[in-house]
User: Fold these one by one.
Assistant:
Number 1:
Amino acid sequence: MNTLRKTEEFYKPFETEKHQLNNDVMDELHHEFLDIYNSVDTTNIKSFQEKLTVLLAHSKKHFSQEEELMDAYGYPTSKEHKDEHNKVLAEMQYFLDLSRTLFGQKMLKAYYMEKIPSWFDLHLLSMDSDLAYFLKKVQ
Ligand SMILES: [Fe+2]
Ligand SMILES: [Fe+2]
């Protein structure tokens, strides 16, 4: 069935090799992030708006938990990491604000489908893996 195929193509799995950082707190947050991300109904434009709202709330929790770890253990590049978190939260809020019009909803959908997955991969491979590595040494 066409709808099912579409959903399967869209699905972004948790890839152990790429995404697992061997920090229990962070790994759980990242699993949760993808669970929310994948629960979107790609056939319904309103669903992107709903899921981005949930993803924004979850990301606030996700980022503040990482930032608590940075502060607790004196992580040296916390400023850059926190700036990146704040940039993403502002971006999500921007697209939610934009989604009051149909044009804005289409922009939000494009952001959700194209930008978020590549951001997630890059952030985990760079900043989050560096933080997890640092925590392994000090915890
Ligand atoms: Fe993270
Ligand atoms: Fe992070």
Number 2:
Amino acid sequence: MQLVHDKHVHTRFSNGCPQTLELVCPHCLKESSFLPKSWHEHGRQVAVAEAPCSRCEDNVLFLQLLEDSNGIHKAAELYLHPPSTARDSVHGLEHLAALSGPLGRTYESALKLYNQTEWGASALMVRHLLEGLATRLLPDDKRDLSLPRQLDALAEVDLAAPLRDIAGLLAPDGSFGREFADEAAIDQATAGQLLELTEYLIAYLVVLPGAMAELKSRIATAPVPLRRSNTG
Ligand SMILES: [Zn+2]
């Protein structure tokens, strides 16, 4: 099951169930239309319908959750099955968009091209994204370097600042440090924030370096593809 964002639903029936949808088909990975005709309600909590993809004609199952709010029966979350094999966007994309709107859109374009199986165009867009990211993060005098040298220079950017910010929180007089003096008084909100903070630290210090080292070793051991000849 995969959650379908509201923006993909163009029109709805009077009972709130989708009538026309435009989304990337989970079978052919192309932007397609779906027109579910008959929705079957089960109890008052869910409605299901099938619709063929306008391009590949394979069927997709839609599952519409329904909710009663103040006596009004209306549509809530919509799911589809099978889930798409398309790549999903990175978690926290809003931070990239906040750093730079154009860079956020470049990333979305790269992802969209990838999901449309436009490998070359996607790779060029990724290169564009890396250049944009380096330019955005580097000081003025490093912005004209080549991409590999820009990435080298990124190591000089202060990546330790988030750690210094956190250290202060855990000091005896910091927000979390004070809480530890009386363990019984720690509430759900504080415990949750401490857990969240620690999860970011694990992601930053352990998961990210580990995942990048693993990717690098996969790149290093991948067989070198044969160059496509001009005639083939
Ligand atoms: Zn399709």
